[in-house]
Amino acid sequence: MAAGVAAWLPFARAAAIGWMPVANLPMPVAPSNKNKHQDELIILNVSGRRFQTWRNTLDRYPDTLLGSSEKEFFFNEETREYFFDRDPDVFRSILNFYRTGKLHYPRYECISAYDEELAFFGIIPEIISDCCYEEYKDRKRENVERLMDDLEDNKDSKLPNMTFRETMWRAFENPHTSTMALVFYYVTGFFIAISVITNVVETVPCGYMPNQRDIPCGERYTEAFFCMDTACVMIFTVEYLMRLFAAPSRYRFMRSVMSIIDVVAILPYYIGLVMTNNEDVSGAFVTLRVFRVFRIFKFSRHSQGLRILGYTLKSCASELGFLLFSLTMAIIIFATVMFYAEKGSSSSKFTSIPASFWYTIVTMTTLGYGDMVPKTIAGKIFGSICSLSGVLVIALPVPVIVSNFSRIYHQNQRADKRRAQKVQKARLSRMRITKSGSSSAFPHSKRNGLNQSLELTGSLEEDQQLKKTTSLLESQHHHLLHCLEKTTNHEFVDERLYEQGYLQTALQNFPSQSPSLSSEEGITGTCCSQRTKKSMQPLSATHTHSHTHNLQELSALHIQCGEQQPLNTSRSSLNLMSDESGSLNCKSSGLVTTAIISIPTPPSNNYRASPDAPTPPNPDAPPLPNPGTDVVKISAL
Amino acid sequence: MSAPVKRTQWDEDPTLFRKDHGLSKKVLLNCCLVRWIISWASPNKKDSVEDELELSAVRHRPEALELLEAQTRFSRKELQILYRGFKNECPSGVVNEDTFKEIYAQFFPQGDASTYAHFLFNAFDTDHNGSVSFEDFVMGLSILLRGTVQEKLNWAFNLYDINKDGYITKEEMLDIIKSIYDMMGKCTYPILKEETPRQHVEIFFQKMDKNRDGVVTIDEFIDCCQNDENIMRSMQLFENVI
After folding, report:
1. Which CATH number fits domain B165-241: 1.10.150.240, 2.40.50.100, 2.30.42.10, 1.10.238.10?
2. What is the ipTM score, two decimals?
3. pTM more than 0.95
4. Distance (Å) from the C-alpha of residue B172 to the closest C-alpha of chain A?
5. Residue limits of the EF-hand domain (chain B) (predicted)?
């Protein structure tokens, strides 16, 4: 129950009078407001700053420090106030949580100080309301990263017993760890550069042949370049194989982007080796050489910025896609328009719409080569419109991409996003647990309340003790739900047990043994049975049984004990009840009163179970503390 | 403050018209015609959004504490506590039906309390203006918590009589009982069956409808309840709620 509406509980209880004329059963006794003191102001002195609030306000959340009796530890007798030696600024937010039901995170506050205060006052951070939750999570994440970075820096010292493979992998991933790794890092970098420069220089014309034609250096010094290429590819191959060997998960390594780049970089050479100097395939061979330029991407291992750029482009895929789409749209529109505008003019370069594409692209990106220009007036008008719109269309998505890049560069978010998703799930699940806790609080407390009451011998102090464990608010709320149960003659059960019960009733179909019953008269030949094998305390059965009777004000049903004995034989496999305890109970009290409501403690009700035919969904599993055991319980209606 | 003002405006008009008989009919007709035309011309005037805005702009201040003290059976302190709780949930000073349903539903997390809350809202909203002000709230509570048994039974009858015609028919009772069962939700023991509400209605009518005419009048109701000691006892259950 939301504590914010605790003030409306009297209204809800008063409205329950609307059920009374409809109910057929007597209502349970209301929890009495014994210590009904007037609502008083209490003073909370936090490091000298005095806060005052109603006592009831703090009682709204009984599982926090201020809402429970834990605050009595801080009570100062002389000044009659509660003194906390904590930060008064943070306490403001905490007290506001009690007042409004919403916990806010102040932005100026340090995240770890805030966390500490929340932990001290027993408030879980998941309750932070949505308006402040994003901020809180972001700050927390940054803090955690910072701590982890510090940890990593300390952790980089070599661990004593790492296998050779692990050392190698660490050396590859973090070149700073050892000198060998650094050397390796620089050597590979050098060879990547060499390889790229070689590829470039290969095509530069140098020297003349007797037939007055420039030839590129590659053809002039074929062997030299071939040697350079071979050397680089050797180095790259060795490096790749070493990484493959050292990788903790080879499959994952082979799937990673960097390894694919490595493979693509060295493959053309090997393919080139395999293929002979055949004329047909030489064209394809030349194409393959283009792939050698991918070696430049190997630099991204060496440069963090390059990796971030790549990641930015990946994450801005939607913006890039939008840019591309809008450009395409505009290009097609303008190309069509220009083509039809220039159709009339003679010797026009705009021979077809695809031919006009080139003009449109060049104009929209404000390049303006000038190889195609419109000549008609209409063409010029549309051409100018085209160039103006080009500026707009390109200028719009670009800042988004830029800001994305800067954001990512500053926050380096890739792993964090994954972590954030996990945390969001954890938060939702925690909130769901507390929420479902509240909705199933009533059946739970029924069981717990009965548990406790059945274990006590019912003296006055223990009653009071029982009451103190659940706050007055809760007990009143539970009484209200209890009245509703009485009005409708049905009980609330846990969802889990409802499903259990449903399955069990679906599974089994008892033969009818008892005489027919009508719910009105309420006399049946059935009774509750609820057994677990573990605890058998037949002696306490009578005590608890009578106590149940007193506490519950149940509609008492008198059952002939004799009737029950023959039913022992018709036991279903679900009931693991032993005979002795059952017979003992029956003998001890000639008339057995059945309890309608779940009696959790196994020994308390040792009744035999036998269902009645008219109501097929018969034995429902009662709410149990231990769901593992099979239980059959029938309510006598 | 706009809502109270509006009410007095409409209250004034009829009295004005009653003075001048000759002119009044024409004026009345004109007024009605004009109003009708306006409402027809701008049909989307009463949007729910606008309703919400109106309601949220309304800041209803309750009557003075002394007045309420005189009209209800609560003491000053009790009224103070009640108002604090009321204002906390409804800062604007009035509850509309949706907020009412929300608040009531929080007490019954396992079921659907909206239908019963709707009936409750109609029972509390005695002047049927779509919102429950603090006065309505406190008057209702005064009857329920501090009233005589007669008054409480009267209130209950009012709650059950959905169309306020003085008779409880079987359909009305079925609606009420279904809404009560709805609050139980799905996970009940024993599992709720389709005909359980209907059976409950039958039992109720058997008990209450003395002359077997198919409806329960207020006298039958009060008579019957006063003779039933369960009901009498349960009426006293919530004496010490505040």
Report:
1. 1.10.238.10
2. 0.71
3. no
4. 13
5. 112-147, 148-183, 196-231
